[in-house]
UniProtKB/TrEMBL annotation:
SMART domains on file: TGc
Tree of life domain: Bacteria
Pfam families associated with the record: Bact_transglu_N (PF08379), Transglut_core (PF01841)
Domain Transglutaminase-like span(s) in chain numbering: 161-219
Protein name: Transglutaminase
InterPro entries linked to this entry: Bac_transglu_N, Papain-like_cys_pep_sf, Transglutaminase-like
Signal sequence segment: none
C-alpha cells in the first residue's frame, strides 16, 4: 500500500467574456476497490454552488452553473489516496465491457493487430490467464506506437490513431481496449493520475477472477500503487474530466492542466 498526496489543477481561459456557463466535472478520485480517498478539497472559480452526484460508472460528478460574465474557469482537487493493488476488492461482472464502444470500433489497422495478437495468444500455455493474454496485447500496442503529444485529439478513434502509429496515453488505451475485446477479454478504460507526470493519464483494466487488474500500454507495464483512479468507462467519452457549454461571441479558449502526485510515507 502507498499513501499518495495528489493535487490536480485545471485552468480554462476565454478570449472574451462568456455567460450561462454550465459545467460537468469528473475530477475527483473516489474510494473504490483498489483505493481509499480521504481529505478531498475541491475549489472552483468563479465561486459558485455545485451539485455532487455519482454516475452509472460510479464516478463522482460535479455539476454547476455560472450565469454571470467571466473570462476564466479554474478548479483544483486536492486529497490523499491510499492505494493497495495487492488487495483489490471484487466487483460484479458487467458484460458491456466486452463490446465495441464509440472510440474503439475496429477498422483495417485494428483488425490486423487483432490477427497478430491471436497468433501470439495461441502460443501461450493452455492455462494462461486473462492477464497473461492482456500483457501480450499490451506489448503489441506499445511497440506499434510512438508517443507524440498533439498528434491526436479527444475525438480520435483507436483506428485513426493506429493508422498513423502515433498518439498519447488515451490512444494507446483505446487501441488496447479494441484488441482485447476482440480476443475475448473484458476491458475498460481508466482515467487517472500517475506519480511523476504533469497531467492526467489513461490506462486499461482487465476483468479476471472477479477483480479489475490494471495494465498501462503507454509504459508497457502493470499498474501498481503509484496510480490513482479518477473515473472508468467504456472509453474516454465516459470519463471526460471536464465538459461544459457557454454563451459567447467568437470565443477562443485555452486550457492549462497540472497534476502533482507524490508519496507520503505511512
Amino acid at each position: 500500500m502507498k499513501k499518495l498526496v495528489f493535487d490536480y489543477e485545471m485552468k480554462l481561459t476565454f478570449s472574451a467574456p462568456v455567460t450561462d456557463h454550465r459545467f460537468q466535472l469528473r475530477c475527483v478520485p473516489a474510494t473504490g476497490p483498489r483505493q481509499q480517498v480521504v481529505d478531498v478539497e475541491v475549489d472552483i472559480e468563479p465561486a459558485n454552488e455545485y451539485e455532487t452526484t455519482i454516475d452509472s460508472f460510479d464516478s463522482v460528478v460535479l455539476t454547476g452553473y455560472i450565469p454571470e460574465p467571466h473570462t476564466m474557469f479554474n478548479y483544483t482537487v486536492k486529497g490523499i489516496a491510499f492505494v493497495d493493488n495487492a488487495h483489490i476488492k471484487p466487483e460484479i461482472y458487467k458484460p458491456l465491457y466486452r463490446f465495441n464502444s464509440a472510440l474503439t470500433v475496429p477498422g483495417p489497422n485494428i483488425e490486423r493487430m487483432i490477427d497478430m495478437c491471436r497468433i501470439r495468444l495461441s502460443a501461450l500455455p493452455i492455462d494462461a490467464t486473462p492477464i497473461d493474454k492482456a500483457q501480450e496485447v499490451m506489448h503489441e500496442v506499445f511497440h506499434a506506437f510512438t508517443y507524440t503529444p498533439g498528434s491526436t485529439t479527444i475525438r480520435t478513434t483507436a483506428e485513426q490513431a493506429l493508422a498513423q502509429r502515433k498518439g498519447v496515453c488515451q490512444d494507446y488505451a483505446h487501441v488496447m481496449l479494441s484488441v482485447c475485446r476482440h480476443v475475448g477479454l473484458t476491458a475498460r478504460y481508466i482515467a487517472g493520475l500517475l506519480g511523476g507526470e504533469g497531467a492526467t493519464h489513461a490506462w486499461v483494466e482487465i476483468y479476471h477472477d472477479g477483480r479489475w487488474i490494471g495494465l498501462d500500454p503507454t509504459h508497457d507495464r502493470m499498474v501498481d500503487d503509484n496510480y490513482i483512479t479518477i473515473a472508468h468507462g467504456r472509453d474516454y467519452r465516459d470519463c471526460m474530466l471536464d465538459i461544459g457549454i457557454f454563451s459567447g461571441l467568437e470565443v477562443q479558449q485555452t486550457q492549462w492542466v497540472n497534476a502533482s502526485v507524490h508519496e507520503q510515507r505511512l
